[in-house]
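Open question from group meeting: does this chain pack into something compact, or does most of it stay loose? Before anyone orders reagents, we agreed to write out a predicted structure and look at it together. Recording both the input and the output here so the notebook holds the full record.
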Amino acid sequence: MSPILEGCSMPPVRSTSLATTILITSIVLSACLSKPHSQMETSLDESFPDSVNAFGDGFPDAGAPCRRLGESSATSAYLDHTRTLAGCLSRSDAEALGGEIVGHLDGVWLISIPNERPTP
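Structure tokens returned:
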């Protein structure tokens, strides 16, 4: 035994409890990493500031990262009865919606989308 460790007694480390801890940690971390980046980025609705009056559970479909935007002092200039105003937290999500990007406000990309798509 090393002279430094003489007189010291340490309880034996149980390898099963260490292995269990490592296993649980691995499972938790892999669950976090398995979400696509866009879901992790937008899973918190509080990311949309109150100033844009975001509502719904996704736009254009439930679970999508963008939201419809309602009337507020910040959005009123962008509202039009013939178009839907939507907001996305990333520019790539905004571009994917189609429509016209009309602004960027408090971290939200504003997109104006025609209610009726023109027929070719």
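Observations to bring back to the group:
The first strand starts at residue 54 and ends at 59.
Strands lie at 54-59, 66-69, 83-88, 100-105, 108-114.
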